Amino acid sequence: MITRNFSLLLGTAFILATALLSPSFLLATMNEKIEISSDANGRLMLEKRQAEGMIAREDRIFIEKDGETKVVFESEGRAVEQVLQADFDGNGSNEMLIVMELGGSADLRELSLLQLKDGKYQQIWEATGFSAGKISLSDQDSDGCPEVVIEYFTDDTPPKEARAIYSLKNGQMTLLKTTLTDKAG
Ligand SMILES: [Ca+2]
Ligand SMILES: [Ca+2]
């Protein structure tokens, strides 16, 4: 009886080892490329990367043109969820709003805004801490440029639904207003 159980155990271990070493398991490492947009400047691509057995994401945003690749953003452990391109300040060129997930129980979002300066994308704003944040763009003050609208939950107990509106004016991202949208409260 003991011998049989032992051989069963060996058999299970063998199957497990085979599964772990098989190419299909190795391919579980995420490496997915998504085209965000494409114009005369090239193709803007998002590459979602996750090393085998790791939780942290090492995503990259890069521009592909004439077979050359130029990395414009690295997520450094965060997962890129959305990349929104719009002319937030009306200066004639599109900024890039990157929405990232930090993970964890609060399901926090982190935002990074990149602006084209001297032909290079540079981060001009970063914000964090929007629990279960949903990010959208709409022109809240009717000046023809979109604002960043963030619907999220506050860290009150119990959490309340809130909305924050950010606007890019004169090179500065500023909080226009925060309102509680909780109907129950
Ligand atoms: Ca702009
Ligand atoms: Ca506006």
What does this structure look like?
There is one protein chain. By secondary structure, the chain is mainly beta. It has a domain at 80-185: Lipocalin (Beta Barrel). Helices cover 13% and strands 56% of the residues. The protein is built from two helices and eleven strands. It has a seven-stranded antiparallel β-sheet with strand order 5-6-7-8-9-10-11, with no helix packed on it. A four-stranded antiparallel β-sheet has the order 1-2-3-4, with no helix packed on it. Strand 8 (120-138) and strand 9 form a beta hairpin. The longest helix is centred in the first third of the chain and has 20 residues, at 2-21. 18% of the residues are buried.
TL;DR of this structure?
This protein is mainly beta and 185 residues long. The protein has 2 helices and 11 strands; from the N terminus they run H-H-E-E-E-E-E-E-E-E-E-E-E. The strands form 2 sheets. Strands 5-6-7-8-9-10-11 form a 7-stranded antiparallel sheet, with no helix packed on it. A 4-stranded antiparallel sheet has the order 1-2-3-4, with no helix packed on it.
